[in-house]
């Protein structure tokens, strides 16, 4: 059954990410953004720096909050306890830096779990942190604005893909009417909502979006009973593609010119690191890297040749990701099959960065992109 979602651009919330009634922040103030997903808990603490921001502290840990969710529809006691331990570390970092501006969000695992509200209360009681569950639409919007600076002046159609642990968000944006020099800024202005921003015309237009309730963890769990590695990969990839049937651009295929895909996820950055043969991950080499369909396929084929034992031992994949890389690669291969391109931009950024941009933009402490 295809995932349900409202139709086209008008389905996005028109209110800004942050409530408008808030005191003015100064440009040196620190902001925190926390993304609690199905598999990982990740946080950034940063201060505004021109049109960007400077990260002063960070945290990332695989907490597997969604472990068992596919089978039981609930967050388990052990996964909640692991997550709260990670959140205690985040709380200490927030206190250490005296952060007052923050947005701490939970995504697909908490959207789906029957006991999510109990978990949010448990987090508040144990850590004091104001964790909130955000809808898929807002998650998609925040991922999009984090990638604004990667949009090329020649791009007329852009597909932003965020492969998470429990869901995958796709947003197709038409920039054809936007002057080439203004296209990156037009994406950033979507922080005000996915409707056309007032006072900016022509503007980026959201053609359609979809949130598929399959990410690297949930897709892996769906096919855990298939023993053959290659067969499991093929089944996962075709199953994910079936879920794209109601996404309007699915039937249109890949445009010939002016088309760019931006992929933001651990899967995409891992594939890029393996393509570059990086033994030690280097964000400066990965973020913004351009890859084509053939290069991505070559890396995925190498993963299949390795088998589970080889992937587990490969330092480029890492201990935290080896069990999830094939489900993520299956999603990525499905996307490349539908929209083959020489213009896939690798984004080592996503929801946390989007949360920071949105907060800072709402406070007016960011400069306009040049």
Describe this protein with a few key phrases.
globular, alpha/beta, single chain, 5-stranded mixed sheet, Nucleotidyltransferase, domain 5, 370 residues, 2 domains, 6-stranded mixed sheet
Structure, explained:
With 370 residues, this protein is an alpha/beta fold. It has two domains: 9-135 and 352-363, ATPase, nucleotide binding domain (Nucleotidyltransferase, domain 5, 2-Layer Sandwich); 139-350, Nucleotidyltransferase, domain 5 (2-Layer Sandwich). 38% of the residues lie in helices and 19% in strands. It has 13 helices and eleven strands. It has helices spanning 69-72, 77-96, 108-112, 116-127, 136-146, 183-188, 216-222, 229-242, 266-275, 283-286, 293-313, 325-338, 351-363; strands spanning 31-36, 40-49, 52-62, 101-106, 131-133, 157-163, 168-174, 205-212, 259-264, 290-291, 344-347. The strands form two sheets. The chain has a six-stranded mixed beta sheet with strand order 8-7-6-9-11-10, with helices on both faces. β1 and β2 form a beta hairpin. α7 crosses α12 (325-338) and α9 packs across α11. The longest helix is centred in the C-terminal third of the chain and has 21 residues, at 293-313. The protein starts with 30 loop residues before the first strand and ends in a 7-residue tail after the last helix. The model is unreliable at 1-24 (pLDDT under 50).
């Amino acid at each position: 059954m295809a995932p349900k979602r409202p139709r086209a651009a008008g389905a996005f919330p028109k209110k800004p990410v942050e409530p408008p009634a808030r005191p003015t922040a100064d440009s040196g103030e620190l902001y925190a953004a926390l993304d609690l997903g199905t598999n990982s808990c990740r946080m950034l603490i940063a201060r505004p720096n021109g049109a960007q921001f400077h990260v002063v502290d960070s945290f990332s840990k695989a907490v597997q909050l969604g472990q068992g969710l596919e089978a039981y529809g609930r967050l388990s006691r052990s996964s909640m306890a692991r997550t709260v331990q990670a959140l205690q570390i985040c709380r200490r970092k927030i206190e250490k830096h005296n952060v007052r501006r923050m947005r701490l969000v939970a995504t697909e695992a908490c959207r789906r779990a029957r006991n999510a509200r109990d978990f949010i209360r448990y987090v508040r009681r144990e850590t004091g942190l104001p964790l909130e569950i955000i809808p898929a639409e807002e998650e998609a919007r925040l991922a999009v604005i984090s990638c604004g600076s990667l949009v090329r002046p020649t791009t007329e159609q852009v597909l932003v893909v965020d492969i998470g642990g429990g869901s995958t968000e796709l947003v197709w944006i038409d920039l054809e009417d936007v002057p080439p020099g203004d296209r990156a800024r037009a994406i950033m202005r979507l922080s005000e909502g996915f409707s056309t921003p007032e006072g900016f015309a022509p503007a980026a237009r959201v053609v359609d979006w979809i949130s598929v309730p399959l990410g690297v963890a949930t897709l892996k769990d769906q096919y855990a009973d298939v023993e053959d590695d290659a067969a499991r990969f093929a089944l996962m990839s075709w199953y994910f593609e079936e879920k794209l049937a109601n996404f309007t651009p699915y039937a249109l295929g890949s445009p010939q010119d002016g088309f760019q895909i931006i992929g933001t996820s651990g899967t995409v950055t891992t594939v890029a690191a393996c393509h570059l043969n990086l033994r030690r991950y280097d964000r400066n080499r990965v973020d913004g890297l351009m890859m084509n369909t053939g290069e991505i396929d070559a890396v995925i084929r190498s993963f299949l040749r390795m088998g589970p034992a080889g992937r587990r031992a490969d330092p480029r994949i890492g201990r935290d990701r080896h069990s999830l890389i094939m489900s993520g690669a299956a999603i990525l291969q499905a996307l490349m099959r539908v929209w083959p391109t020489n213009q896939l931009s690798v984004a080592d950024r996503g929801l946390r960065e989007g949360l920071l941009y949105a907060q800072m933009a709402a406070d007016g402490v960011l400069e306009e992109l040049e």
